[in-house]
Structures are given as C-alpha cells and as structure tokens.
Amino acid sequence: MAAILRSSVKAEVSDFDFVRLTSNPYFGALRDTLMSDVQQTASIPVSLMKVEEPQQETSLDPNIVAIQEANLMSDFQQVMPSGNQKVVELHEFYNKQCSSIENERNEAIQDLKENNMLSVSQYQRELNRIHVHHDQQRMHLTNRVTASLELLKISMPSNREVSSSKVKGRQLSSRGIEVMTDWYEKHIDHPYPTDEEKQALANLGGLSLSQVKAWFANKRNRTNNTKPKKQKIQVEKRLISICSELSGNNRPQPRLYGDIIKQLSDIVQTSHAFLRGPTGLLSDSYNSSGDELEQFCSD
DNA sequence: TAGAATGATTGGGA
DNA sequence: TCCCAATCATTCTA
Q1: Each residue of A146-170: b (16+ CB within 10 Å) or e?
Q2: What does the pLDDT read at residue A192?
Q3: Quick check: A170 CB within 7 A of strand C?
Q4: Rounded to whole angstroms, how far apart are CA atoms A282 and A274?
Q5: Pfam families, per this entry (predicted)?
Q6: What is the pLDDT of residues A143-160, one digit of tens each?
Q7: Nucleotides of C under 7 A from a protein CB
Q8: Count of helices and strands (H, E) across chain A
Q9: Class at the top of the CATH hierarchy for domain A169-222
Q10: How far does the CA of A172 sit from the C1' of C13, in Å?
Q11: CA-to-CA distance for A194 and A216, rounded, in angstroms?
C-alpha cells in the first residue's frame, strides 16, 4: 500500500509524510486489514500491497522522532492529572525504555571510540548506523506507547465522563460533583470561588473551567443563594415583620407610622438590585423611589 | 411517560 | 468579564 502510495503520488508525498504515515500507530492495523481483504478477494496482487520498509541504514530525520516524542509527552500531560494507575505505569515504562535505549546508544558509541582499527570513514559510517538504529528504536517505542495511551484514554471511565459531559444534559463526573459540592457547603455564606479556586476545583474534579463556573452559577441560583435572591429574602422578611406589626394587636400609635415609613424607605433604598430589575416591583414604568418615599415621610 | 433534576447556553446588567 | 435569571436540551426516576 505504501509502495503504491509512494509511486503514484511521489511528487506530492515527501519523505517526511511517508514516515509519518508508516509510523502512525493505526497504519499496521489498516495494512493488515487490507492485506486480509486482498487475500480473500484475490482481485489485487498481494505484491502490490507489500509495504516498503525503510532501509535499515537510511538515516532518520531526528525532527520526526522529536515531534512524535513531544506529542506523546503532551498526551501524557493531559491524561496524567487523572491519576490513572495504568497511565502512570505506562509513563514510567516509557521513561525506563528511553533510558535503556540511550544507555545502549552511549555504550555502543563508547565501544566504537575504543576500537582503533577503524578508518575515519568507517568510524563515521558506524557511528551513523548506531544513531539510526537507536533512533528507530525510540520511534518504535514511541509509536507503541502512543497506541497504548490512546487505548487507555478510551477506556478511562473519568475520561469517558468528561468527554460525554460536553453533550448537553449529561452528568458531570462524580468526583467533580463531589469536590464542588464539598467546596460549596464549606463556603455556603459566600459561594463564590476565586479564579485560582475554580481552576483548582476543575483540576481536582477533572472538569473544565467553564463547567465549574456553570455548575456554581446553577447551584447558587437553584438554592436561592445568589446575592440578589438572598437580599430579596431578607427584604421579604422585614416587610412581613412590618405588616404583622401594623395588623397585629400591638398596633403602633399613628404618630409612630413615620418610623415604619422610614423603615420601608430604607428597604426600597437598599433593594435597588431586585426591585428595579426587569421583573422587579419598581420597573421603569414605576416612577416612585426611596427618595420620594423619604419625602413623603418627612411631609 | 410526565415531571424532576441537571448541565449548558443566552441575553442583559454592572 | 463576571454574575444572574431564564430557558433549552437531555437524562433520570417514580
């Protein structure tokens, strides 16, 4: 397949693209599937499907290895915070194998240096062969670990929950709910996490920052714990208190009504947020205000 | 299956 | 840019 690709679109496919294609972790599986199909249908000569393996001594662009390793490290950094044991083990395995390859490389170079029987050109050729060999080993290792990490990412329950939670209406991860609820209950009087706290909660719960923000906004709103709602509840309590005072048996003397009106004026003055809101008691069409009430009181 | 619960989005105010 | 209230969309549950 790669041979076909290479020969048919040689002008467009660079060596870089070709190596990227053949080093893709799914390339092998795709090749095997196609080979199987070819053998079953016998409509395409198998020889055409033969993969052109890179020459053993062909030098490998170190940039490709570096890019692949950087991508793998980036993947690890994304998944590691989940604390998944298998990911941790895979990461350790990868680091050990890399160290092992580099140790072998260094030993081989050291042996080469100690060999005084080689000419300069022979030495250079041999040195190149050592680097190519070990670069290929690292590339194969990186590909294998990348494929394993992909499988782990798919199988991770927390990851499934996080990705699926992007869909509307899906439950957030239980860990995420747990840490946010815990924080909310501990800060019930002021449930407004700072940016740093939001980020920490997101990291702890495996959530995005916007999910944390939305969860707290919903939580405050649905438990009547937003600032305007709390203020409104306070005002309602004071109004009920005044009403009961006015209608009760211990009704105040008319000369004390001024005090009550003053109290009502204070309530209007301090309740701007919800009284003047779009659904408030004092909408734009209602022109009365605390000041007017104050004026009425003094009259 | 209807209603509740919940995550996400939107538009407006500060 | 944050917060809020309202609303939508989806899932859960009795």
Answers
A1: bebbeebbeebebbebbeebeeeee
A2: 95
A3: yes
A4: 9
A5: Homeobox_KN
A6: 888 777 766 665 554 444
A7: 2-12
A8: 14, 0
A9: mainly alpha
A10: 18
A11: 12
